[in-house]
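User: quick one - fold this with adenosine-5'-triphosphate bound?
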Amino acid sequence: MSETIVQLEDVSVFQRENLILNEINLEVKKGEFVYVIGKTGSGKSSFMKTLYADLPLKQGKGKIVDFDLKTMQEKDIPFLRRKLGIVFQDFKLLLDRNINNNLKFVLKATGWTDSGKMENKIEEVLEKVGMKTKGFKFPHELSGGEQQRVAIARALLNDPELILADEPTGNLDPQTSVEVMKVLQEINENGRTIIMATHDYALILKYPHKTLKCDGSKIFEVIQKAI
Ligand SMILES: Nc1ncnc2c1ncn2[C@@H]1O[C@H](COP(=O)(O)OP(=O)(O)OP(=O)(O)O)[C@@H](O)[C@H]1O
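Assistant: Sure. C-alpha cells for the protein plus adenosine-5'-triphosphate:
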C-alpha cells in the first residue's frame, strides 16, 4: 500500500479574512508528481503556503508528512520544514557567500555539526543537480538556471519527503526551464514526491503528470486535454 504524503479534507484557504479556496479534498501519495495550475490570483501560492504552514489551516483537516496542519503550533513549524524541500521562483540564495557556504548555512541551521559530513552532503546534492564543480562560485556568478539548480540542491539537503516548488521556472527562459524541469523529473524518478505550482503549460505538455487546477475558489484535477 503506498504511503500518503498529503491528505486534505474539506480544507478552506484564507488570506486574512478573504476566502481564496474552499472544499479542497486531496490525497497525494509517495512518489507522485503533481502540478498546480491556474490563472494569476487563483490561489496557487496560497495553496502551497498552506502546505508548508506559512498560512494557518483554519478550516478543514490537513495532514502533511505526519504533521497535522490544524493542530500544529508555531514551534512545530521548523520541524515540518525540515521534512520539506521548498523551491521558490526567485531562488532566495544568500548573495554574500558562495554556493558551498549557502548550503553549509542551511545544514548548520538544521542541526548539522560534523564538517566532513557536511562537505559530503553538499557534494552529493550539488552532483544531483549537475553543479558539483561550481560550489566555489557566488550566486551572481551563476546564470538563473544554475541558481535555481542550486536552490533545488539546497531543498534536497535534509532528504525531504516532499518537495514543494512554487513557480520554479517562473524566472527562466523556455530552454533553461526544461533543464531545471529535467532535474526535478529525475529527483521524482528517484522516488521523491513533488508538488509544483506553475504557469508553464509547455512544460506540462512535455512532462505530463497529475494536474490540479485552481479556479473559482475550487481546486480540482484536470485531464491534459482540458488544460
Ligand atoms: N499576503 C496577502 N494578503 C492578502 N491577500 C493576499 C495575500 N497574498 C495573496 N493574496 C490574495 O490571494 C489571492 C490568491 O493569491 P495567490 O498569490 O495565492 O495566487 P496565485 O495563483 O499564486 O497567483 P500568481 O500566479 O500571480 O502567483 C489573490 O486575490 C491575492 O490578491
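One thing worth noting: The radius of gyration is 17 Å.
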